[in-house]
Amino acid sequence: MRLCPVCSQPMRERKVYTIAVDGCDRCGGAWFDHHELTELAKTDLQVLGRLDAEFRPVDTKTHGPIMSRRCPGCAITLEPKELRHAPGVTVDVCPRCCGIWLEDTELTAIQEVVGKAHPTAGE
């Protein structure tokens, strides 16, 4: 079982189509392995908002500095990076495995930015 990079709690796996998304029920974040977020957005952009709603935080306090966040797969420190297809949305990325950590509400932000730029995306 993977641990949340923000609050170190075990994450819950949620199957969406063929993709297994790990989400934290404490802080509301979600982990995507390499290419999973892109594949999911191509398949069904609307599912991003639904996933955001599913992993709702029960604890809204900030948990530790961003620089101490580690990849749930390979334990490398995550680095902030702006998403190429969602300008203005910065996420935490593992430099080794290219997994992506999204804070609570970032899935909805991605859905909105991509939806405005490409109104037919995910259809």
Quick structural gist:
With 123 residues, the protein is of the alpha+beta class. It contains three helices and six strands, in the order E-E-E-H-H-E-E-E-H.
Tell me what the structure shows.
This protein has 123 residues and is of the alpha+beta class. It has one domain. The chain has helices spanning 36-43, 47-54, 106-117; strands spanning 12-16, 19-23, 30-32, 79-82, 90-93, 100-102. The protein is globular. The N and C termini lie far apart (33 Å).
For the secondary structure, the number of strands is: 6
Span from first to last CA? 33 Å
Radius of gyration: 13 Å
- Number of folding domains? 1
Defining traits:
123 residues, alpha+beta, six-stranded antiparallel β-sheet, 6 strands, globular
Task: Outline the fold blueprint.
Elements lengths: L11 E5 L2 E5 L6 E3 L3 H8 L3 H8 L24 E4 L7 E4 L6 E3 L3 H12 L6
Antiparallel strand pairs: 1-2, 2-3, 3-6, 4-5, 5-6
